[in-house]
UniProtKB/TrEMBL annotation, chains A, B:
NCBIfam families: F420_cofD (TIGR01819). It comes from the Bacteria. This is 2-phospho-L-lactate transferase. Keywords: Magnesium, Transferase. GO terms for molecular function: LPPG:FO 2-phospho-L-lactate transferase activity. The keyword Transferase applies. InterPro entries: CofD, CofD-like_dom_sf, FbiA/CofD. It comes from Cellulosimicrobium composti. Pfam families: CofD (PF01933).
Length: 317, 317
């Protein structure tokens, strides 16, 4: 087969919503897609193993995501959560009935001995997801957030306290012992294009890169490496990325993000609003693509995905 | 206090629906009520610990039971079950969203080290149940059903195959090692009245009596012991009691049931339709009360409960 006749092998390193939406666009654009997903947000609640980023990616690729809200399943109901509250459980972490089913099934299969990779493959297959969705590791990694109020579990920080606390530091508990899940390193090494999603650099991307071998695989891959900035016009499209960049001493801009990826990324995709930063990013040794990076629904995702694929193909051959 | 000024201490030995409804009637009648509940129907499905009889008793006493259907929670929805089916789980065991919450919470607390008694006390308290609801044991007992199709797990027999198989024998797996839960033996020994509910003698009552010390406590208690026949006019009010009596070689009648309880029961409550059996039951050494034993809603339950309390008080003092 010639290059014209096969799909690009594209691997996305992703957190939740931003990664999920760009992955969706790449899927719509026909990429041969692998999504390597952060699991450091995972949490056990009510005895159930919850993997929010894996679920966001899966639901989005399956067309089940609640796009308006940005998390969970569309048309969701909350009868079980209501009943759990009545039974005396803390219900600060909102679990819809359909989402709960995912957690029940995942937990049962994990307890029966399956790996998180196995279960993720089963769930994505059951929901008709074409892409490979891989947890970055089958081992347990937990982001802990140091704040003026003390060290918080990730979901306590993110959902329980609505990421209002200043982030003074981050600990990825367990990451030193975490081995990459089957297929993860190959997906980075053997891809035509590796995409660092417009996800939070500290909460999503770093706990992916920190798993043994992933950063090295990204540094060493022959794939063209493209990052999309999650910061547009000095603000995060979603979530606390801007605050965290600030409190950790980084510039809150696409340039600040680009600096974090020096040596790991060949092309930085930045928003039209940030065109004035293009030269400074180029000075870091990266190519720059300036485009509209704010994805809305499916058309916007596919458009950005095609830009990313073009950026990824620019230097090939 | 004189006898007139305190509630009767009443302990019910119960399975599911029949026991739950009579317990409800006794609660409405103002009894100081303890319900000792069969757990040999319990099953682990989807990694969740399900205790159908405990839940039926609890939901009924809490006013949450789906009375029309005879199991589960009124106004129930099935979003999670639907999603679980989509994820490839077997869904022959119908779990509503609210019911699922009970199983999730129970399972989480059991895994965290609580006993089934502890969890049951927490759940009944949370739902405003006044009566003490006690699993007969915190240990695991599982009814296995020998049929022409082989040995079946209880829920497979009962729900999965709709109790259509002939029952050739029953095994209460684990019962020899099962210890009575805290309070169970005292509840039988110290009661004023012990009621054997109109539950299935083989599927519900026997795996209660078979737990170490329970049969002996019932045989030796100074309480007045009253059983209500689950067979009316040669038919079971609900479930497979009639078929099981037949295939195990017993007479399908209130008399056949009474014979199973000789030495354990002082008064047999039989239905008006079975008045002609009263003398034969008396010949077994029991008193007989003939009344309408078919409970409908709350008024019918309370009426039967008052008959039972009268029967239980008849010989006192």
């Amino acid at each position: 087969m010639t290059a014209e006749h096969r799909s690009d092998r594209v691997t996305v390193l992703a957190g939740g919503v931003g990664g999920a939406r760009l992955a969706h666009g790449l899927d719509l654009a026909g990429a041969d897609l692998t999504v390597v997903v952060n699991v450091a947000d995972d949490v056990e609640l009510h005895g159930l193993w919850i993997s929010p980023d894996l679920d966001t990616v899966t639901y989005t690729l399956a067309g089940l995501a609640d796009e308006e809200r940005g998390w969970g399943v569309v048309g969701e109901t909350y009868a079980a959560l209501d009943a759990m509250g009545r039974l005396g459980e803390d219900t600060w972490f909102t679990l819809g009935d359909r989402d709960l089913a995912t957690h029940v099934v995942r937990t049962a299969r994990l307890r029966a001995g399956a790996s998180l990779s196995d279960v993720t493959a089963q769930l994505t297959a059951a929901l008709g997801v074409r892409a490979r969705v891989l947890p970055v590791t089958d081992d347990r990694v937990a982001t802990l957030v140091d704040t003026p109020a003390g060290r918080l579990g990730f979901q306590e920080y993110f959902v329980g306290r609505r990421h209002a606390d200043d982030v003074l530091g981050l600990v990825y508990d367990g990451i030193d012992a975490a081995r990459p899940a089957p297929g993860v390193l190959d997906a980075v090494t053997d891809a035509d294009v590796v995409v660092v999603a417009p996800s939070n650099p500290f909460l999503s991307v770093e706990p992916v890169l920190g798993v043994a071998g992933v950063r090295e695989a990204l540094a060493g891959t022959t794939a063209r490496r493209v990052a999309v900035s999650p910061i547009v016009g000095g603000r995060a499209i979603k979530g606390p990325a801007a605050q965290i960049l600030t409190t950790l001493g980084h510039e809150v801009s696409a340039l600040g993000v680009a600096r974090l990826y020096v040596g790991l990324v060949d092309v930085m995709v930045i928003d039209d609003h940030d065109a004035h930063l293009a030269d400074a990013v180029r000075a870091l040794g990266m190519d720059v693509v300036v485009t509209d990076t704010v994805m809305g629904g499916a058309p916007g995702r596919e458009r950005l995905a095609r830009e990313v694929l073009r950026a990824g193909g620019a230097s090939r051959g």
